[in-house]
Amino acid sequence: MSKFVPRLAFILAAAALTAFLAGGAVAFESKCAQDSDTQLEFCSGSTAVSYTVREGDTLYEIAQEHRVSLRELMQVNNLTESLIRPGDVLELPEPVEVEIALSRGKVSREELMLLARIIHAEARGESFEGKVAVGAVVLNRIRSPHFPKTISDVIFQKNNRVYQFSPVGDGSFNLEPDETSLEAALQALSGKDPTGGALFFYNPELSSDRWIRTLPVMTRIGNHVFATCL
């Protein structure tokens, strides 16, 4: 492990045009909400509709194109596997957040992908809650006066020339994040924090860092112990 990955904007008009060209009829209805506790604003469009599968389509590509979760797309259509056939008609669930904004400014798509990458690299094999927890630690550091103030700077921070996140140093950070890691990143950005405010995490079976073991433990999720400052 390590001691210790965005402006995500989906333009409604462009999304509607894309859906229309792809053969799906999508009606968008704007709705916004403000969470004063997390200082995060999100807007989403609601879809009421269906999509007819074309030759060469994959379920993952349809989910990506329409900005919906692959898991939700499968659940809404009662699918237990990703096999689809041309002519199948799929119901499209409500898309994920169209726009996410933190108090310090909008989070870019690039930063979202950085957060998803570090989650994927650090928490492969962990539960969904464990993945969200890793993302929450990154965001908790941004809010702390002891760490950098952007997702990118937190992830690439070094201490004595050593990266705070070991996957950045060993290259596993560059692996493409999966759908679950992307969902976990969005959950963390929406304010979910299973750690209760942790700033550090480690695997006690693998970590040889004595200092980190002296930190107050907040919780343990899967193989990771989550801790905070003294």
Automatic annotation (TrEMBL):
One of its GO terms (molecular function) is hydrolase activity. SMART domains: LysM (SM00257). SUPFAM superfamilies: LysM domain. Residues 49-92 form the LysM domain. This is Cell wall hydrolyses. It comes from anaerobic digester metagenome.
